[in-house]
Amino acid sequence: MIELIGYAASALVAVSLLTSNVLRLRVLNLAGALVFVVYAAMAGVWPVLAVNAFIAVIDAWHIIRLKSRADIFKLMPVGPGDPLLANFLAYYARGVWQFFPEFDLKALKDPRCVFILRNLMPVGLFVYTEEAPEIRVHLDFVVEDYRDLKSARFLFNKGLHPDMFKGFSCLRASAGSEQHAGYLRRLGFAEDPPGSGIFRRPV
């Protein structure tokens, strides 16, 4: 039993090192350190307990710091032919394809492209078309290190962008995977009609 706890702690620490998201890394590493503390206490290995207790405190401090940090968000509209847009899509092509396999900017008629800036860094891209009374979402992509919903909640906050949503009644998005469907539900979208893979949310 003690050995199994040790293996579980090792697995958590190993998994934490495989993620590029800093907050997720800290949370997994904290969990691994706490399990190691339990393991060391049961096995009577006090140096291991002391080191992992210290690691747990450091991880907890970083998590609190990351959670309480005030980020500055802005939206930056760009044209479909903007070089920054082309480079962003090329660099993150694999991630875009993973969640939006049917996305093709060139096939869209009059697309609106908006970068989500976080502390002046372009961390997300929102591409939509105006199909009154709906805004149809074709791409809502955020780079992996910043997928904590803060960018999305800023983007879909009508009070912060009244001109962007003026004259429209709802947002419409298609879910390409269960993971994407879960993301939409967390943001207040509902599948309409049920089982269709199409999600809507009032503006």
Model description:
The chain has 203 residues and is an alpha+beta fold. It folds into 2 domains: 2-68; 73-202, Gcn5-related N-acetyltransferase (GNAT) (Aminopeptidase). Helix content is 47%, strand content 22%. It contains 8 helices and 7 strands, in the order αααβααβββααβαββ. It has helices at residues 2-16, 22-43, 46-68, 83-91, 93-99, 150-155, 162-165, 178-186, and strands spanning 73-78, 112-118, 121-131, 134-142, 170-174, 190-191, 198-202. The protein has a 7-stranded mixed sheet, sandwiched between helices. A hairpin with a 6-residue loop joins strand 6 (190-191) and strand 7. Helix 1 (2-16) packs antiparallel against helix 2. It is elongated and about 65 Å long. The termini are far apart. The model has no long low-confidence stretch (mean pLDDT 91).
Under the CATH scheme, the architecture of the largest domain is: 3-Layer(aba) Sandwich
In sequence order, what are the helices and strands, one letter per element?
HHHEHHEEEHHEHEE
List the uncertain runs.
none
Strand order in space, largest sheet: 1-2-3-4-5-7-6
* Rg computed from alpha carbons, rounded to a whole number of angstroms: 21 Å
Amino- and carboxy-terminal Cα gap: 53 Å
User: Biggest sheet, in brief?
Assistant: 7 strands, mixed
The CATH superfamily of the largest domain bears the name Gcn5-related N-acetyltransferase (GNAT)
* Portion in strands: 15-25%
Summing up helix and strand content along with how strands pair, one would put the structural category as alpha+beta
- Mean pLDDT score, rounded? 91
Q: Regarding quaternary structure, how should these chains be classified?
A: single chain
Number of domains: 2
> Tally the helices: what do you get?
8
